[in-house]
Amino acid sequence: MTEPTETELLLPWYVTGKLSDKDRARVDAWLKEHPDAAGRLDDIRLEMDETIAVNQDIRAPAPGGLDRLMTRLDSEFGPAPDIEKRNWWQKLAGSLSDAMQIPVMRHAAIAAALIIAIQAASIAALVHRPAGPANYETASGPADTAGESGSVLLVKFASQATAARISALLEETGGTIIKGPAGGGIYLIRFEKRKPAAEKKLIASLRAKKDIISFVAPNG
Amino acid sequence: ARHHLALYRFLVRLVRNEAVAEELVNETFVEVWRSAARFKGRSAPSTWIFAIARNKAVSILRKRADEELDDHTSLAVEDESDNPEVTAMKGNKAKLIRQCLEKLSPQHREVIDLVYYHEKSINEIATITGLPPGTVKTRVFHARKQLTGLLKRAGIDRGWP
Fold first, then answer.
1. Structure ipTM
2. Is A161 left (phi over 0), alpha (psi -120 to 50) or beta?
3. How far is B3 from chain A (nearest CA, A)?
4. Interface contact flag, A13 B121, Cβ < 8 Å
5. Per-residue confidence of chain A (220 residues) as pLDDT tens digits?
6. Do A150 and A193 contact (CB within 8 A), yes or no?
7. Chain A residues with beta carbon closer than 8 angstroms to that of B26
8. B138 chain-A contacts, CB cut-off 8 A
């Protein structure tokens, strides 16, 4: 068997759609020159379908994982015994040494931890999907829903807000971070589509939570 | 929830033990929490998290390689009633491919999952595995070549990886 060309090595990613524009164009041109290669793409698609099936056959773990994780985080990152009491959030922020001097880096680092913490909170919502010839779905699931309609608000979290309280609030209100942080630590958060009066009520209730939210406004 | 299920599945496929994989998910998030300050945003957070998870799984696999195999840590034991050759005779190609995918080596299984199920790009897989992008491409090629070999043994000749 001859060694593959550089272009042939790209075929799996061509099928999954994860090539740069330049590489995709290269494969397109190669496929035009090798029309007999269409069968190879079909084989790759079959490999992909069955890889997805094999993975989907793995059931979600039993509920309770979040509790165990949070207990562990509590025991490891609980308040420091020193005079200045710190919650998780402040301890994390305090550990960002040089990064904290640069506002953009500070927000980026905190944003990463926030997104991670919010994702960690969603372990509790893991749902078993039945195995079998259901519609196949890759790890990323349906297309990104950032474009879906909803009430989108600009939100800045209070500096003393803990990740656990933020994620609990988002869980409670059905909010999803879709972008951020932008300058000044502002996030775009989407909530279920509401009529204007209901949106005003949501904004008022979020504003009332001054220990978690320092700023909230409609986006546009 | 979707992303955490994906991480859990990634780990199950690596370590072949659901309880260990679940513990590794927790270990990963504890590590992520500890290391959040070091995350520079050069990759997507999920790629970074997968890389941490993978390193933890590899540590377990290395330790396991030194231990005597037992019922809990051995790779899938051959089940003569459900091997590719028998399935080929039954004419179920999809099931056959699935069986052959399960028989890939851990290194090959990992990259095949990352390409097809987790839909990672070449550079993302390079970040997760610590391999150069060129090696990622050839490893996927060799994984597919191994798959072709397994299929051929079961009677399906694709002629190429």
1. 0.83
2. beta
3. 7
4. yes
5. 578 899 999 999 999 999 999 999 999 999 999 998 888 999 999 999 999 999 999 988 877 666 676 677 777 765 444 333 334 444 444 443 333 333 433 444 444 455 554 444 443 333 333 333 334 456 765 433 444 567 888 888 887 787 778 878 887 888 888 776 766 677 888 888 788 888 888 988 998 898 889 888 887 6
6. yes
7. 65, 68-69, 72
8. 9
